[in-house]
């Protein structure tokens, strides 16, 4: 399995600096990284941060969550088929919501190949102190990126006094009590800390206590063993807690030849017939997804 890290954070917070630093450390230990860069609002030359020997795909035409997951899937497919690498780093645009970015990356098609390790959010400490000057929508996004992180990089501490650093750290921890906070200048995050995060539930863990993981935004792959009744399935959807943010995949419905393409976001459901027989699997993204009982079964994998 290839570990995948999502680098999130507001515009100008230090994501590209983090990316360069991580690549350098991976290379030193002999691990081969590949990169997907989401360059909305950036200039293509930002990819110079990535050296020529690192496989790189750029998404220049829009942001991961807006251009839709198909484009992301195509990029991933090309990388997986055309390159050999051990770890994948995805730099999201500063304007991406973390749940949507994770959703775009986590397709059932790759669930057995890619292991989503989690979201690392770079928080610009200077900007944090000035957050009241942001518009409400921008501030909301800034806070959401921090709230959903599995690891927070509190960056630009060189621009703060000691007492400001203490205040910011305390406030960040209050917003996201679960994620470790690492204070940095120029996003110098040590690799060993980054490697500890885990955002994916693997089947064998569902009934075990995966300490810490239940609290986070995480994902889980569910495989259907037999067709399900559409009405039962939709009743089950209505009862889901609102901490299930997103589901997608292929559901085998009684009376249909092939599993149907299924999309679920913020309570809205979409079904589309599929011409090809796709594997009957869905990915569930949310908080505490290990507790979700899929039609009376915790896990039938
Ligand atoms: N003083 C200071 N400047 C920093 C630090 N980290 C990054 N910067 C600077 O902040 C600017 C933005 O850094 P990037 O790493 O490009 O940030 P980014 O999040 O990729 O930016 P976008 O691509 O605009 O989203 C650059 O000029 C960096 O040199 C830091 O810890 N302290």
Molecular structure report:
With 301 residues, the chain is α/β, with parallel strands linked by helices. The protein has 2 domains: 2-194, Rossmann fold; 205-291, Hypothetical Protein Yjia, Chain: A,domain 2, CATH 3.30.1220. The protein contains 8 helices and 13 strands. It has helices at residues 15-28, 69-82, 98-105, 125-129, 136-147, 162-175, 191-194, 230-238, and strands at 2-9, 33-38, 56-59, 87-91, 114-124, 151-155, 181-183, 200-201, 217-223, 244-251, 260-265, 268-272, 281-287. The model is unreliable at 41-45 (pLDDT under 50). Guanosine-5'-triphosphate (GTP) binds next to helix 1. One of its GO terms (molecular function) is hydrolase activity. Residues 217-296 form the CobW C-terminal domain.
């Amino acid at each position: 399995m290839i570990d995948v890290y999502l680098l999130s954070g507001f515009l100008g917070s230090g994501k590209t600096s983090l990316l360069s630093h991580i690549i350098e450390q991976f290379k030193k230990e002999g691990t081969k990284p590949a990169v997907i860069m989401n360059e909305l609002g950036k200039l293509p030359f930002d990819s110079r941060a990535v050296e020529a020997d690192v496989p790189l795909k750029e998404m220049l035409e829009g942001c991961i969550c807006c251009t839709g997951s198909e484009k992301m899937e195509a990029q991933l497919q090309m990388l997986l088929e055309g390159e050999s690498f051990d770890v994948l780093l995805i730099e999201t645009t500063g304007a991406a919501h973390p749940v949507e970015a994770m959703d775009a990356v986590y397709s059932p098609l790759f669930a057995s190949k890619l292991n989503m390790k989690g979201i690392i959010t770079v928080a610009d400490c200077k900007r944090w102190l000035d957050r009241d000057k942001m518009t409400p929508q921008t501030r909301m996004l800034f806070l959401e990126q921090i709230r959903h992180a599995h690891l927070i990089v509190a960056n630009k501490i060189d621009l703060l006094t000691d007492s400001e650093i203490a205040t910011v750290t305390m406030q960040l921890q209050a917003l996201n009590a679960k994620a470790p906070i690492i204070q940095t200048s120029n996003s110098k995050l040590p690799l060993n800390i980054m490697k500890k995060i885990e955002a994916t539930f693997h089947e064998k863990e569902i009934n075990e206590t995966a300490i810490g993981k239940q609290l986070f935004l995480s994902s889980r792959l569910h495989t259907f063993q037999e067709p399900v009744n559409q009405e039962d399935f939709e009743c089950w959807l209505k009862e889901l807690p609102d901490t299930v943010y997103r589901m997608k995949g292929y559901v085998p419905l009684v009376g249909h030849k092939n599993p149907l393409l299924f999309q679920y976001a913020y309570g809205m459901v979409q079904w589309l017939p599929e011409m090809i027989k796709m594997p009957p699997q869905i990915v569930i993204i949310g908080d505490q997804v290990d507790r979700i009982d899929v039609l009376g079964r915790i896990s039938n994998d």
